[in-house]
Design goal:
alpha/beta; Glutaredoxin; 5-stranded mixed sheet; two-stranded antiparallel sheet
Length: 161
């Protein structure tokens, strides 16, 4: 079942890269008492994700935070090492929190999984963005096509804040 505006974000533990190696970060830790912009991509380094979706959030991170957002986070269906390499290559550390959903379990829990096996990518996340206030989804933007980042873009989020 797909999540909707007004739903609570489900409890889940992502993998993040901490200073001393892989660690866990729960959705409660990420969202409790905070306003969070969470966006999801099918995969790190993939064309739309790397050249369009993430760069928009980097470009607009200050403007988004000026609107009262505590944290901007991205979830990707990659292992933590690929996710961390993407954060490094993008020079995004400190602006965006990178959350690894290596087995697409979070994507499935929120009903945003997509089978991209035809492209050799297996189970992935749909491309979406959301605004979460104290664990409750106030805005949800899901792309119809995983190869575009318009409805889920940083510009769209800025208009909603």
């Amino acid at each position: 079942m797909s999540i909707s505006t007004g739903d609570r974000i489900p409890e889940f533990e992502f993998t993040i890269m901490a200073d001393d190696g892989p660690a866990k970060m729960s959705t409660s830790e990420l969202c409790s008492g905070k306003t969070v912009v969470l966006f999801a991509v099918p995969g790190a380094f993939t064309p739309t994700c790397h050249a369009n979706h993430l760069p928009g959030f980097l470009e607009h991170s200050d403007a988004i935070k000026e609107k009262g957002v505590d944290t901007i986070a991205v979830t990707t269906v990659n292992d933590i090492h690929v996710t961390n390499a993407w954060a490094d290559a993008s020079k995004a550390k400190g602006k965006v929190v990178f959350l690894s959903d290596g087995n697409a379990e979070f994507a499935t829990a929120v009903g945003q999984e997509i089978d991209l096996g035809v492209a050799g990518m297996g189970m992935r996340s749909k491309r979406y963005s959301m605004i979460i206030k104290d664990g409750v989804i106030t805005n949800l933007n899901v792309e119809d096509n995983p190869g575009q980042a318009v409805a889920s873009s940083a510009s769209a989020i800025l208009e909603q804040l």
